[in-house]
């Protein structure tokens, strides 16, 4: 697949929820359906959490300030990872793709892998029973 990647400034805009121009549509589709889509989602979320480090500037004990940052990260990661499929779906829709495309692409890719695993599993157990 041939696509044009966004520059770092555009990627930051995309990471915080912005839309990219149409010339990046194929990259957005690849970004949200590649085998590394979970890691890519995690990277975008980490960009959103960088302002949490400003909590270290709040007056008070250092342990309390680090605890606030840790609590912010834990809560944010929990919710962002809980809704990552929905967030990816929304990004695809925002870039003009139909609803459900990301799930369909991932399921089709997994189907081929599953079929291969099932075949290996069945042949292994068939050989053991003979």
Condensed summary:
With 130 residues, this protein is an all-alpha fold.
Give structural notes:
The protein has 130 residues and is mostly helical. It has one domain (8-129). Helices cover 70% and strands 0% of the residues. The chain is built from 6 helices and no strands. The protein has helices at 8-15, 25-33, 37-49, 62-82, 84-94, 101-129. The longest helix is centred in the C-terminal third of the chain and has 29 residues, at 101-129. The protein is globular. The relative contact order is 0.11. The model has no long low-confidence stretch (mean pLDDT 84).
Name the structural class.
mainly alpha
Domains, number: 1
Task: Please give the radius of gyration in angstroms.
Answer: 20 Å
**What is the rounded distance between the termini?**
45 Å
User: Can you tell me the residue ranges where pLDDT is under 50 for at least 5 consecutive residues?
Assistant: none
Count of separate DSSP helical elements:
6
Shape: globular
What is the share of helical residues? over 70%
Element pattern in H and E: HHHHHH
Work out the number of β strands. 0
Features:
DUF5313; 130 residues; globular; 0% strand; 6 helices; mainly alpha; single chain; 70% helix
List the helices and strands and how they pair.
Blueprint: H1 8-15, H2 25-33, H3 37-49, H4 62-82, H5 84-94, H6 101-129
Helix pairs in contact: 3-4
